[in-house]
């Protein structure tokens, strides 16, 4: 089973896309090709590989057979034309922006992103000469006045970490396309089981595969998927992709690779020269995790609803921000864009504020106090004292991570045990 537009069901794609029995050994599971380099058939074949005239393996910083299966698997799950797997979610964002941006360029991102993305975009990207303007994802029109001739993209999360904002993807796609820009959607929290942004007009999807895709808290990785439908030449704004490339004897990636142009540039230039290749071992673990993505997400979702309902009824809890609760302001958007349910990841507020948040995360036993999401294990975090502490209090509030906020990533343990652990922890506040 290969080829991107698949007629198979989601569960079948999660297990089979990109994979075939190993041609040499017959091994059914994709082996870990723990290999750096690949023998050339002859000098002509080597030349055509280096000239990007033939697809094939040269060196594992560019391609690796295990990593390639992961790329095709995630691209197929997202309904995209091609995928590029890299060493982390942040590497995915770096490689992608390297393809789109020149020094002096700008892009516009949601204020309610993963805290690490806000820092990467707002601080570290400045060193590349790139400026990120932030705008309110609840008000897509607020992005419009920030668009100018140097703007190269709009970046949102389909379901945000940790605020639980569900973005109106169609509205953002229209604003981006009216201005000739690609819409980039970080689909980490929603996962393709929950939401397929490309079907709503997104041009590029990025993932931290570290989270629900891998799903077991054992591997860091990232993936970029392109829809194949964006015209990179129309605006003249994307010279890296749609103008002659000096590193490849004047090759124009968009003319040569069409629907795979972004992926081809990302691999042949950005990954080659920046270097954040994914290890084949991590790709193997991520592939294994993806096989059970639908099963895990169903159970995560069922547990999350029960935990959210329990917290909403607790007298030390002031609010619960879970799009799966009918009272949520995002419930209608959730039903439209994530019909299988809200991400099992949400925040709630403690009446006791910062101190109560610290007390709770230090009192739980089954829940793990750590800075990750999307594990089989239930995870708890007090963002204001950890992941979001580099941000100003204003930025913390804007990111949905104020001092009273606790974030839960509900795992797939027995739900009564998760609730009992929260119960004893809340009792200690
Ligand atoms: C974790 C995360 C990232 C960054 O991914 P890494 O794999 O940790 O580099 C980006 N976006 C979202 C929504 C995340 O949760």
Architecture overview:
With 429 residues, this protein is of the alpha/beta class. The chain has helices at residues 10-16, 43-50, 65-78, 89-100, 115-122, 169-178, 191-194, 239-242, 253-257, 261-274, 280-291, 293-312, 331-337, 353-363, 393-398, 415-427; strands at residues 82-86, 106-110, 131-135, 151-157, 183-186, 204-208, 222-226, 317-321, 345-350, 368-369, 379-381, 405-409. Helix 3 packs parallel to helix 11 (280-291) and helix 14 (353-363) packs across helix 16 (415-427). It is globular and about 70 Å long. The mean pLDDT is 95. Pyridoxal-5'-phosphate is lined by residues 88-90, 114, 116-117, 157, 161, 186, 188-189, 208, 210-211, 220, 222, 373.
Could you list some keywords that capture this structure?
five-stranded mixed β-sheet, Aspartate Aminotransferase, domain 2, 2 domains, alpha/beta, O-acetylhomoserine aminocarboxypropyltransferase activity, PyrdxlP-dep_Trfase_small, O-acetylhomoserine aminocarboxypropyltransferase, OAc-hSer/O-AcSer_sulfhydrylase, Aspartate Aminotransferase, domain 1, 13% strand
């Amino acid at each position: 089973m290969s080829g991107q537009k698949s007629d198979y069901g989601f569960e079948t794609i999660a297990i089979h896309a990109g994979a075939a029995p190993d041609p040499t050994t017959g091994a059914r599971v994709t082996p870990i090709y723990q290999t750096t380099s690949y023998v050339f058939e002859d000098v002509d074949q080597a030349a055509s590989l280096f000239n990007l005239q033939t697809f094939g393996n040269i060196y594992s910083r560019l391609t690796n057979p295990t990593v390639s299966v992961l790329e095709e698997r995630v691209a197929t799950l997202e309904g995209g034309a091609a995928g590029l797997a890299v060493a982390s979610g942040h590497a995915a964002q770096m490689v992608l922006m390297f393809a789109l941006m020149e020094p002096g360029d700008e892009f516009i991102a949601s204020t309610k992103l993963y805290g690490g993305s806000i820092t990467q975009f707002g601080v570290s990207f400045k060193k590349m000469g790139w400026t990120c303007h932030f705008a309110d994802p609840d008000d897509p029109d607020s992005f419009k006045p920030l668009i100018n001739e140097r703007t190269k993209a709009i970046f949102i999360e389909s379901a945000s970490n940790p605020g639980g904002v569900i973005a109106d993807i169609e509205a953002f796609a229209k604003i981006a396309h009216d201005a000739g820009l690609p819409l980039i959607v970080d689909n980490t929290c929603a996962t393709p089981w929950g939401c397929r942004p490309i079907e709503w007009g997104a041009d590029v999807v990025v993932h931290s595969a570290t989270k629900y895709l891998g799903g077991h808290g054992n591997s860091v990785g990232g993936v970029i998927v392109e829809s194949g439908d964006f015209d990179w030449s129309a605006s003249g704004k994307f010279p890296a992709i749609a103008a002659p490339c000096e590193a490849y004897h004047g090759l124009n990636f968009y003319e040569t690779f069409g629907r795979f142009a972004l992926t081809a540039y990302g691999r042949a230039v950005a990954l080659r020269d920046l270097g954040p290749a994914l290890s084949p071992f991590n790709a193997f673990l991520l592939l294994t995790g993806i096989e059970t993505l639908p099963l895990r997400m169903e159970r995560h979702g069922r547990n999350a609803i029960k935990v959210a309902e329990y917290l909403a009824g607790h007298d030390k809890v002031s609010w619960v921000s879970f799009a799966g609760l009918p009272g949520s302001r995002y419930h209608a958007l959730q039903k439209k864009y994530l019909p299988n349910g809200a991400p099992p990841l949400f925040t709630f507020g403690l009446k006791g504020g910062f101190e109560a948040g610290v007390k709770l995360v230090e009192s739980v036993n089954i829940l793990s106090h750590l800075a990750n999401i999307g594990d089989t294990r239930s995870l708890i975090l007090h963002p204001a004292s950890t992941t979001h502490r580099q941000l100003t209090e204003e930025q913390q509030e804007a990111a949905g991570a104020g001092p009273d906020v606790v974030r839960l990533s509900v795992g797939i343990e027995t739900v009564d045990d998760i609730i009992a652990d929260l119960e004893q922890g809340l009792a200690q506040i």
